[in-house]
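Feature request, filed as a ticket because there's no other form

It would be nice if the structure record came with a short human-readable summary line next to the tokens. Right now we just get the raw output. Example of a typical job, pasted below so the devs can see what we mean:
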Amino acid sequence: MKKLVIFDLDGTLLNTIADLAQSTNYALKQLGYPTHPVEKYKFMVGNGINKLFERALPEGEKTEENILRVRKEFIPYYNLHNADDSQPYTGIPELLSELQILGIQLAVASNKYQAATQRLIEHYFPSIRFVAVFGQREGINVKPDPTIVFDILKLSNTPKEAVLYVGDSGVDMQTAANAEVEACGVTWGFRPRTELEQFNPTYLVNTAQEIKNIVTMPPHT
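Raw output as currently delivered:
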């Protein structure tokens, strides 16, 4: 049985794409740039918000300065609107409750900036006690750098072999590989199954319930 499950946030626990798209489009519009359909954003998110803005800006406009201008418009707007249309995926609230009852430690490792990560978790999962809720923090490399996982392992005092890392993208699968923990890819998120398969995760699941089954399996002999 696993002792700790680390979850990605966007595309794994919560479907946040509409609010991310809305807020980025708002920021682009404020600065006179063209906007994008919601679906397009599924391939822009996942590497932190500065990377999202770089991808959303038109060719020839992807400068450091413009990224920061978009960020300045985005953050106050997103802080107000990050829970307008976002929803937990089917079965996720139940999964977290069941794992908590079983005494499994739970953590969040996201590339979303720290304040928004914290706020969304508190808003949508108020009764879940997470051992750590980490987003993108100042001075710490974003995933697939494994630092975020190592920080959680220290806090939870858990050996790598007792950990399951759950995410919806290639970035997540790479993060797990870089941290040398078992990866579980979810097919309901923002990225296609084929992207997950490229990184050979130990598990690929279509429902939240399957995660509980993996977590409670006896260890490999």
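Something like this underneath would help us a lot:
The chain has two domains: 4-15+87-215, 17-81.
Residues 17-81 form a domain with the DNA polymerase; domain 1 fold (CATH 1.10.150.240).
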